Amino acid sequence: MTTSLRRAAATFYSAAQFWLAAAVCGAFAIPNSHAADAAAQHTFAIGTNDFLLDGQRFQIRCGEMHAARMPAEYWRQRLRMAKAMGLNTVCAYLFWNLHEPKPGEFVWTGQADDAEFCRIAQEEGLWVILRPGPYACAEWEMGGTPWWLLKYDDIKFRTRDPRYINAMKSYLKEVGRVLGPLQITHGGPIIMAQVENEYGSIGKDAGYMDDVRNALLDAGFDVPLFACNPPSVMKNGMLTNLFQTANFSGDPAGNFQKLRALQPSGPLMCSEFYPGWFDTWGQPHHLGNTPKYLGDLEYMLSHDASFSIYMAHGGTTFGLWSGCDRPFKPDTSSYDYDAPISEAGWPTPKFFQTRELFAKYLLPGEKLPEVPATNPVVAFAPVTLTETAPVFDNLPAAVPDEIPRNMEAYDQGYGCILYRTQIPAGAAASLEAAAIHDFGYVFLDGKRVGMLDRRDASAKILLPERKAAAQLDILVEPAGRVNFGVEMADRKGLIAPVKLGGEILKGWEIFNLPLDDKMLAGLKFRSSRGNEAQTEIGNRQSAIGNQPAFWRGTFNLEKAGDTFLDLRGWGKGDLWVNGHCLGRYWNIGPTQTAYAPGCWLRAGENEIVILDLPGPQQPEIAGLAKPILDQLRPKLDFLKARRPAVKLNLAATKPVHTGSFAPGADTQDIKFAAPASGQFFCLESLNALDGKPYAAVAELDLLDADGNAISHNGWTIAYVDSEENMSADGAAENAIDGQTANFWHTQWSDASPDHPHRLILNLGKSQAISGFRYVPRQGGAEVTGRIKDYRIYAGDALIQK
Ligand code: GLA
After folding, report:
1. Angle, in degrees to the nearest 10, between helices 75-85 and 114-123
2. 174, 198, 684, 724: which is the annotated catalytic residue?
3. pLDDT of residue 210
C-alpha cells in the first residue's frame, strides 16, 4: 500500500469510526513495503472498549525497560524476569542520539541493537510497545535528541522547524527500516508505536504531531499509533484521530475520567504508571509508595484498563547518557527507579507483590512462568589505584579562539572541555562568565582556586591577587543535557562573555576532551607499581591533590559476577571497567556505588579507570555485593551553601496579586490585574485547603506579557522557608523542573513549620510577568500541601544577600 494511501487510511477516520476501522485493518493485516507480511500470524487492533489480540479482548499488562540501560548480554534474563512478574508486554524507548551519533551515521549494534531486544522479547513471549521518539525524555541525555542539532544556533526542537523535521524524518525512516519488520503485522512482537512523547507538556501544534505521525507512517509503521500525555495537558496539540493514552502516578479513576472526557471511546490505558521515581544528585533516593502502587494497579486491572509500569526495570544509564531535570538537576547514572525489578535484575518484594496481584488477573490461557535465576554476584576487597594520568599532562592540540564558545561549536558532543587564557598580574578581581554549563574547575598556573557551579545563581568567583601574569584554566565538566522542556537546547561549556574585573577576556586556547575510547587509549599513565613505596604513591597523590586526573588500577576476581563498585573514596567524575563506561559518580550521593555487570568482568585481572575532577580522598575501589543508592553526603558538596543565607524584603513590598487556589489537582492559570516584573518571584502560602501546616507545589510556570510560559533556563531557588528532604524529596526545585509527578513540600518528618510559607525564585534576570500557571500536588483529595489563600510578590529586591 503506498504512503499516500496509508496516510489516507490513518487520517480518514474520525474518533467514532477509528476503532472500527483499526479492528478491520488489524483483522486483515494491511500489506506494506516490508516483505514479511505473510509471516503475520497475529493481529492487534484498538477496539471500541478493549485492545484486540487476534480479535480477543487483550488487557495490556506492560512494563517499561530500556535496552540501552541493560547490558545486552542480560536482556534475556531481564525479559524473563518481566514475564515472570506477570507482564505480557514490554515498552521501550528508542534514543535517537544513541542510534545517530553523527548526522546520517546510524548505529544498531551492541547496546543499540533494539531489533535484537525485540526479537528476544518475542522469544520470551512478550509483546512490545515501541516509543521511537523522535523525543523520549526518560532522564536520558537531551531526552534522546542528538546534540549535533545544537549547531544550529536558533533551532527550535519539537516544532515544525524544517531543520528539526528533516532530521527526525530521516531518523524515523531508518527506524522503520530496522524495526518495521518486527511489527506484529509482519510476524514480529511490536503491537503499537508511540508518536513523540508527552508533547502536550511543551507545545500546542497539532500540525507538528501530524508531521511526526506521518513520518512514522512513511517509515512503514502500520500497527496502531498512539500519543501519551499527563491528562492535564493532553488537549494541547491533540490529534483527535490519534489514539490517546494517559500518564499518571495515581488516582486512576480521576485520571481516566479526564481521558474519557477527551476520548469518549476506546480502551483506557495508563502508558506511564510510576512505582518509584528517578534520582538526581544531591537529593534523597526515591522510594515509591508500594501499597498505593498496588492499590492503583488493582483498580486498573479490575476496571479492564491497560497500563505500563514506568519503570518495571530501570537499570543503569551507562556511559555519559544520563540526562538532567530542568532547570538543572543532573540525574544519577543509577536508574534503579525503585522499580519492581532492581538495577541488577533482582526480584524485589515489590516484584513478588506485583506477581501475586497479576496472578489474579491472568487472561485465558495465560500462566506465570517460574521466576528466573539472578546473575551471580561477587565482592572484592579494596584495591588502590596506583597509576595516574593528570588531565593537564594529557591535553590534545589546542584550538585557538578569540572568545570561548560552547562545546558543540567545536564539534564536540560529550566529555569535558578546557578553556585556557593568559591574564595579567593584578589585584584580586571577580571572574565572571555569562553562564557555566555545568561545573567549571578554575586554576591559576595549575593551582585550583575555585569552582563555577551552574547550581549557583551566578557564574562568578573572586580570583586572588596575581603578582605576575598567570595562566587561567577553566576545566568544564558538563552533566547530561536537560532532557525536558524548552531548556533542552542546553549547550555545554563556558558561555561567553567571560570577564575579569569587568573586562572581557580575549585570546583563548580550547582543549577538547571527549572522553571517548580514542582519548582513553591515548592517556599516558605514570605507572609505578611494585617498588614504589606507599609513601611515594601518597606523595604523588597529595601532589596530584585536587588536580583533575585519570587513575588506573586493576582488581582480580576468582570468577566473574555482578558487583557494585564502592566509590565513596572518590570525588566526582566518570569510570570505566574493561573499557565499558559505567557512568558518572559524585560523592554527594545519593548513589555511592556503580553497578558493574558480571558480563563485562572476567575471572582474573580487570582494569578500572576513573576520571576524578576534584580529586579523591582515598583512591581505592572495592566491590560490594549490594548497591548503595541512598546515602547523601552534603558536606562533601563543593557548593557549600545550597541555600545561601538571605534576608527577605517582603515587608516593604506590595503583593502584585492575592488570591485563593481552587481545590483539586487541575492546572490553574492565574492572570494578574496589572503586568508585573522583576528578577525575583515569590509565592507565599497563607493557609492550606486541608487546614494543615503544609504547602506543596507540583509545578510553577510564569507567563510572559503574551501569556506564554517563560523558559526556566538559569532559574534557581533564591529562598525557601521549608522543604522536606529527610524522609522524601520535597525539594523546592521540584516546583520548577517540569515534572508534575514530583513536588516541593514543606517539612513534615523532622518538623512541621506552619504557614506563611514562602518560595522565592531567582529568574536570573528581570522578566515581565503577566501571571503564572500553578499545578497543585497531584493525586487524590487526601494529599497534603494544597495551598488555599496566597500572595504573590515580584520585583528585583525581594531578597538581600
Ligand atoms: C515523563 C516522561 C518519561 C520519564 C518520566 C519520569 O512522564 O514521559 O520519559 O521522564 O516522566 O521518569
Report:
1. 40
2. 198
3. 98
